[in-house]
Write a structure and sequence with these properties.
Order of helices and strands: EEEHEEEHEHEHEHHHEHEHEH
Structural class: alpha/beta
Number of domains: 1
CATH superfamily: Alpha/Beta hydrolase fold, catalytic domain
Number of strands: 12
Strand order of the largest sheet: 2-1-4-5-7-6-8-9-11-12
CATH class: Alpha Beta
Largest sheet: 10 strands, mixed
Strand content: 15-25%
CATH topology: Rossmann fold
Helix content: 25-40%
Amino acid sequence: MLLRYRCTSRRLEATVVQDPATTRASVRPTFKSTASEAEFFAAYDAVLGLWPVPFELLEVPSAYGTTHVEACGPVDGPPLVLLHAGGATSTVWFNNVGDLSRTHRVYAVDQIGDAGRSVHDGHPVRGIEDFMAWLDGLFDSLGLHGAALGGHSYGAWLALNYALHAPQRISKLVLLDPTGCFVGMKMSYRLHALPLFARPSAQRMRDFLTWESDGAPLDATWLHLAALAGGEVRGSKLILPRRPQAGRLRACTVPTLQVLAEKSKSLDIDRAAANAQQHMPHVVNTVLPGATHHTIPTVNAAQLNREVLHFLA
């Protein structure tokens, strides 16, 4: 079964592309209350309302559940798959899809088991191998071959691992301030994040994002959604990122762009650039001036979009 919905700023049209052979129970991430669930999905739809281009909503079934995807751009354009940071949801690319979808067919994915509209009601995700199998199924269902793959933070870790797992399927790789790829997270970042794990709340998440972004003008609509995702949503068990082995990185021939945030409080960007350069033969490093880990990809997105499009071209 593959469901497609055509969205414009005025209406939503839905068609069933293929009759379902089976019906799944609607099992989504759990919430602290019914009210918080309603608030989260209202906030999710509000951020989608910021997207400047028409898009389709795709519901892609797999052994792990149903993956929700926003697709936009020319249907015959080269495919570009985007994986968001933890809790950011696929809606976070609202300041990027306008530029990226001019030349590419963009697929923004709600990661399985994370906050969003994907339904994790199938096999559990116990480790990176399950994530790879999930992405294999997603690429198969969408008919993607030779796609560019990009990700931010945790999504970049997934993207890098998938390029190592199935390099023949990936034409180019874009890593945005990637965590768990070439360096670990700074201790100060981990310490500031501890309250989120001990006693999660929307206000604690908002405070954390405000601290890391150095008071940058995060979009209020998206910040509200991200705060709810971090404080009100309980997703599947978190798989902690582990850096890939140096030998696997050296064997990777996929052309790779690493975009580092100049003021990232998550990563030591000098070490991240040096380690990537040492271990990956086809990596290009660039630094986004003034950016922090959590202002990517929404703040001052025009420069980021230019870097990405130049690399993809």
